[in-house]
Amino acid sequence: VQLVESGGGLVQAGGSLRLSCAASGSTSTINAMGWYRQALGKQREWVATITSGDGNTNYADSVKGRFTISRDNAKNTISLQMNSLKPEDTAVYYCNAVGLWGLVRYTNWGQGTQVTVSS
Question: Would you state the pLDDT for residue 47?
Fold first, then answer.
């Protein structure tokens, strides 16, 4: 499974951005997809997840109520709508997919997209 993110950029605090992640390859093996972020000098942290089956969503407390993860099964894409952005949301955002290839569990990552929120 290959993942390609798009939609990052520069926005002022309080603004919005929408990130997208397109999956290709053996997409039927994906169990869940999500977003992580890594700010400069910090560890990568989980942001949100959406499952492939029932579309269940989960969010980190830091983004709950501001970010919304969604999926388009027909296009094998997920999106992250980010509203009320704060300077502390500045980071490289990574899409990931977890699934099973036969009996082997995998986790694949996209290349990342930069989100910068100015104060």
Answer: 98
3-state SS, residue 6:
strand
Q: Which residues contact 20 (CB under 8 A, 6 or more apart)?
A: 5, 6, 7, 77, 78, 79, 80
Q: Which residues pair with 3 in a beta bridge?
A: 23
Q: C-alpha angle 30/9/14, rounded to 5°?
A: 100
Tokens of 70: 């969604």
Contact 22, 4 (CB under 8 A): yes
Q: Which two tokens stand for residue 16?
A: 């919005």
Give per-residue pLDDT as tens, 2-29.
999 999 999 999 999 999 999 999 999 9
Query: Are the CB atoms for 85 and 11 separated by under 8 Å?
Result: yes
CA distance 77 to 60: 21
